[in-house]
Amino acid sequence: QVQLVESGGGLVHPGGSLRLSCLVSGSDFSIYTMGWYRQGPGKQRELVAVISTSGITNYDDSVKGRFTISRDTAKNTVYLQMNSLKPEDTAVYYCNARTTGFILNYWGQGTQVTVSS
């Protein structure tokens, strides 16, 4: 079956950086639009960044200019480079893989990112 495994979360000081990775197995990585979502304490899950099968990216306004999403088809992996981190970026970050119309839609287990001094 399709599995998404995130890694790279942790504790970082404000202004610091982290890079999240999400390895996709069990399916053809190239067919999926890949996204990163996050869910902060007491909040709903929200879209952070998305990258299409052709490499087109889109970001939530709150992370534009600070976060970069990328994908490596040879490694079946999507990345989220997070710079200039703020305390409000603290959340569990989830990787998502979906096809058009969400006919196929898969989630990872999440990785905790904590931004604190």
Helix and strand topology:
Layout: E1 3-7, E2 10-12, E3 18-25, E4 33-39, E5 46-51, E6 57-59, E7 67-72, E8 77-82, E9 91-98, E10 105-107, E11 111-115
Parallel strand pairs: 2-11
Antiparallel strand pairs: 1-3, 3-8, 4-5, 4-9, 5-6, 7-8, 9-10, 9-11
Task: Give an overview in words.
- This protein has 117 residues and is mainly β.
- It has no helices and 11 strands.
- It has strands spanning 3-7, 10-12, 18-25, 33-39, 46-51, 57-59, 67-72, 77-82, 91-98, 105-107, 111-115.
If you average the pLDDT, what whole number results?
Answer: 96
- Biggest beta sheet summary: 7 strands, mixed
Low-confidence stretches: none
Oligomer: single chain
Distance between the termini: 40 Å
Q: How many distinct helices?
A: 0
* Anisotropy-based shape: globular
Q: What structural category do the secondary elements indicate? A: mainly beta
Keywords:
11 strands; four-stranded antiparallel sheet; 0% helix; mainly beta; single chain; 117 residues
Task: Provide a quick synopsis of the model.
The chain is mostly beta strands. The protein is built from no helices and eleven strands.
